[in-house]
Amino acid sequence: MATLEGERQNLQVQWCSLPTNHCTNRINVPQLQPNMWVELLRELNPYSHNEALLLCEKSETEWVAWVPDHGEATLRIDEFCCPVVD
After folding, report:
1. Domain ranges within the chain, ordered by starting residue
2. How far apart are CA 37 and CA 50, in angstroms?
3. Contact status, residue 64 vs residue 72, Cβ threshold 8 Å
């Protein structure tokens, strides 16, 4: 059980780098929330898209999401990244 707790603490949301139009003085990092599109770090199947729509938080480290051409899936927060908005 201690191993699972240690693994859970190491999971972190990853943030994608997007061009900031030469305006680097302020970057807002969005909080995960339902109806947010995220980029998958790997496709779930050869035919699915590389993005997902977050539906609801399942646990501290997992979200239920809808992936085009795949359907509903449970994603760990280390399996996707969120765009950084400036």
Report:
1. 2-83
2. 10
3. yes
DSSP letters, the chain, are -HHHHHHHHH---EEE----TT--S--BPPPP-TT-EEEESS-SSTTS-SEEEEEEEEETTEEEEEETTTEEEEEEGGGEEEE-B-
- Given a cut of 60, whether residue 4 has pLDDT beyond it is no
At the topology level, CATH places domain 2-83 in SH3 type barrels. (2.30.30)
Residue 24: per-residue pLDDT = 42
Pairing assessment for the beta strands 14-16 and 80-83 based on DSSP bridges: parallel
Residue 71's nearest CA partner among 41, 49, 39, 42 is: 49
pTM (global) more than 0.70: no
